[in-house]
Amino acid sequence: MYVIYSFLMGAAALLLLPYWLVKGLRQRKYLSNLRERLGLSTASLDKLPAGGPGAIWIHAVSVGELLSSIALAKRLKEAYPNRPLVVSTTTITAQSLARERLEFADAVFYFPLDWSFSVRSVLRAVRPSLIVVLETEIWPNFLREAHKEGVPVIFANARISDRSFARFMRWKFLIGPFFARILQDATLFLTQTPEDAKRLAEMGAPEARVEVTGNLKYDGAPPEPGAFVGWLKEQIAMQERWPVVVAGSVVAEEEEAVLAGFDIVQRQWRRALLVMAPRKPDRFDAAAEIVSAGGWEVVRRSGLDPMSALSENADVLVLDSIGELAGIYALADAAFVGGSLVPAGGHNILEPAWFSRPPVFGSSMENFHEMASQFLAARAGIQVTSGTQLGRVWVQLIQDDAARQRMGKAARELSERNRGATARSLERIKIELNGTRPPS
């Protein structure tokens, strides 16, 4: 089966080659890191010490996984200062953020493509004693090669979404045995919820290796307000801009719905300001064009001069930057977390909750189902199904100070009450590193 899988991987790569080339030439994606992902260049890892204890390797595929790994990575570096700690990502955005937020890491690099020769090359360069994969990024050849080298692989913050599980069950008759074989090569699965643990076991993970440790995202901390957040706060106060609504992690085909909601707000308060943060950099230009085409005056974060003033006529600020959104929620009178009004699975609703802002989100929260359910049950968040409903909810929250503060307090308390996954995961990882794991 591994031969067939590798063949299919190669065939898929050939089919996608024209797309990669076009994207690479137009947007400088893929081609810049291809040699590293093929294992042909390990320059990012050359500075790792040749001797001494093996490295701890943390893999976070994209921005969400990376952000949830920061606290765990810091604790691991503190606990094992003599071990190199390396971090890999798959996306360019996550790579950039890793270099910025994990400055204590000994190396940051791109995760290898899942061919045996690529994986072996990177394993030789890293020489890991342990690999921690965030969430459930399952690559058969990677797991197989790590197992051959005797390197434990732990899946931390593991989850199986409704969509992924339904897809697996639909094709279980065909891929079930192979998938169960793949999961045998993992050492431990530390899941977010009991439901995730149950699903993993049904997919073939040995039950003795599956434990529930909670969601690492709850252990995130509000970022220190950066210079831009401070500047924007001053501009809002000086210009008496009110209310401020923040729409974060907005994805393609969701911009129009957010603007429809903002239109309802702005009809009530002409001096309202919308801060809209596209989820991915490749939507920065498109989002700004959509806002402008709708008749609003748009300014972009990248075009602002901190020494000058925000335009008095600006209706929408497009946050075309990475890593600043979380702090912006502190300025919000009402907030929306995107990727949820279209079938994109949702995004992390904890960031506004850190600042006692009740998150508003759409009905597509498959990737955050448990979290969304808790927020709704505690009346700490509101779910909407359209841009029009979003606008009406924003207006209600802005008008009703008492309700907004009550919900904001409930959101903050809920986020704090669920902390502890990092400590629990750390203890299990320490057992592996210290070689004291009981036999399974």
Shape: globular
| Quaternary structure annotation | single chain
CATH class membership of the largest domain: Alpha Beta
Q: State the low-pLDDT regions, or none.
A: none
Structural class: alpha/beta
CATH architecture of the largest domain: 3-Layer(aba) Sandwich
What average pLDDT do the residues reach?
93
Biggest β-sheet, characterized? 7 strands, parallel
Across the major sheet, the strand order is 3-2-1-4-5-6-7
Q: What is the fold named in CATH at topology level of the largest domain?
A: Rossmann fold
Structurally, the number of domains stands at 2
Helix content: 40-55%
CATH superfamily of the largest domain: Glycogen Phosphorylase B
- β-strand percent reads 5-15%
Extended strand count: 14
Q: Give Rg in angstroms.
A: 23 Å
Number of helices, counting only DSSP H or I runs of 4 residues or more: 17
Instruction: For the record, give the distance between the C-alpha atoms at the N and C termini, rounded to a whole number.
Output: 26 Å
